[in-house]
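Suppose you are handed only these lines of text.
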Amino acid sequence: MQPIVILRNLGKSFAGVRALDRAQFDLLPGEVHALMGENGAGKSTLMKVLAGVYRKDSGEIEFDGRPVDIESPRAAQALGIGIIHQELNLMNHLSAAQNIFIGREPRGALGLFVDEEAMRREAQRIFERMNLRLDPRTPVGELTVAKQQMVEIAKALSFDSRVLIMDEPTAALNNEEVADLFRIIGQLKSQGVAIVYISHKMDELQRIADRVTVMRDGQYIATVPMATTPMDTLIAMMVGRQLAEVENDFPDTSGHEIVLEARGITRGAMVRDASFVLRKGEILGFAGLMGAGRTELARAVFGADALDAGEVFVNGRKVSIRSPEDAVSHGIGYLSEDRKHFGLATGMDVETNIALASMKRFLSLGFFVDQAAIEAEGRRYVKQLAIKTPSGRQQVRLLSGGNQQKIVIAKWLLRDCSVLFFDEPTRGIDVGAKAEIYKLLHTLAAEGKAIAIISSELPEILRMSHRVLVMCEGRITGELAGREATQEKIMQLATRRQATADAAMPS
Ligand SMILES: Nc1ncnc2c1ncn2[C@@H]1O[C@H](COP(=O)(O)OP(=O)(O)OP(=O)(O)O)[C@@H](O)[C@H]1O
Ligand SMILES: [Mg+2]
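From them, the structure of the protein bound to adenosine-5'-triphosphate can be written out as follows.
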């Protein structure tokens, strides 16, 4: 079969960074072709060149047997190349439908006015195909990250693409939503659409990919069939070294002193009467399905959202937390799952972002910013977390997705909180860096920090947690010792509805 896309010897440099170095890739109609590689390997860059977002410095692009020059996203669309970007690219104040049809809105009879009704209908049709229940008129800013991601996908589907690039499309999706997406991918495949699929989730790749191309440091490593290539082989190709496995030794922390206690936390319909304690030196895992209220609980404790009811105690003393600043002043940190909106100032540089939550420490005489100290700390964390950046002065928005996530982590590590909530800490992070982060969290706990992690990946919860709390529909439905926890036990608790209690709640 003739490939629909062939990329040969592509080169692309950004000031100081060689993102692509003789990269290669070919894509067949009707295949799902996975692109794998560590954070910063060049996956997104390669696909942005194909989608006309970046101009290549060198190399050739062949589309449908002809050499082409793709000089803009519009040119890519005209060829039938669609892309779902890794970082959401939506306008928060516009509705879902408006976002999908931005720049090509259907017009009324005279072509003067945007036909809102036609746009809504068309969006609705795509949502139905995706099995997505969502009012197309909802402003995107009011949607959860998962729903925003679904809108991005709907947007890509609204073009009748022959090539569809998905850059970590499932990062924020729950299992059902992933299943819906895979069903749509199956349909597209059978229509001959060629799909590029970028993900760090190995299980997904195994389920969906026909072939895999591995990249490392902007270079092409190999293209192999998915079904017959062992995962270990792929990982070795990706990282070029052996990975250190972290063991969870399940220390018994039940006797440790309680650092944080939350009692009866209630916030809207998402968090209902949740109580828990967090002890010094322990890693407490919060498990549950997406939408179970874990993020909302953490945000309420952290003061990011107001409480309807409930009390928080730090080291046995009742505290009043009305804002994230209050929380931080009591030694509580929260790494948001949504780095773009809450975690990072993406227009500022790496060092500044790392120092941002700890600025006080870098003021001398309460006035002068100690730039040298900021630089030194920046350098320390860039090294410790292996953040791939040309320098501490690089703007964060120019880093790869996974490296941005590492900066959020560095920022809170530096803040030196005694309690740290990590919300989906390894989302979008490659296997090698994941292992590093697991090791780091275990070290932090061993040093006496109290750590809570929220993760939708059960293997991660099981590998990390000394103790597991499970939530369902805003309530804590069970607790398991880390040693006893299994996927089955967690899933049981995660789907246990509290019918009687619900019936008593006014709605
Ligand atoms: N606009 C830009 N300006 C400067 N450097 C950039 C820019 N875009 C990407 N880079 C750099 O190019 C390299 C490749 O980045 P890319 O985003 O392609 O990685 P990736 O493989 O998609 O990683 P991830 O898995 O973290 O998303 C990285 O070192 C990144 O910092
Ligand atoms: Mg990327």
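What can we learn from it? The pocket of adenosine-5'-triphosphate (ligand 1) is lined by residues 14, 17, 19, 37, 39-45, 86, 388, 398-403, 430 (CB under 6 Å). Residues 499-507 have pLDDT under 50 and may be disordered.
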